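Each record in this resource describes a single protein on a pair of labelled lines. With that in mind, the following record should read easily:

===
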Amino acid sequence: MHTEPGQLLSTSAADLRITLTNIGGHLLRVSVAGEVDFATSGELRAALDAVLADLTGTPVEVDLAEVPFLDSSGVHVLLDAYAWAADRDCPLVVANARPVVRRVLEITGVLALLGLAPAGR
């Protein structure tokens, strides 16, 4: 699947929205809005797979500013995306995680692995 910046990658009855934005031609931001749990994690996986399938060497930022909840299935998707991105030489980081989501990422060790994008990037 070919993805275009500004493209809405996912909409569902579960209210998960995923949008792709090209930032200055040197970074792709995947903005996620809604709860990421067992019911919606498949959509996030499909969207990240589609984005990463087209890339080599481009950094990817997963913006979680509009994610109020992230469970273990969402953590698993982020870990898989990180591994797939690393195979394509695409650094993948998370950004703007709310305190509850950030805590989940810290407790699981995922934040230390993926890293947190600097504020205002």
Observations:
- The chain has a mean pLDDT of 89.
- The chain is about 35% helix and 25% strand.
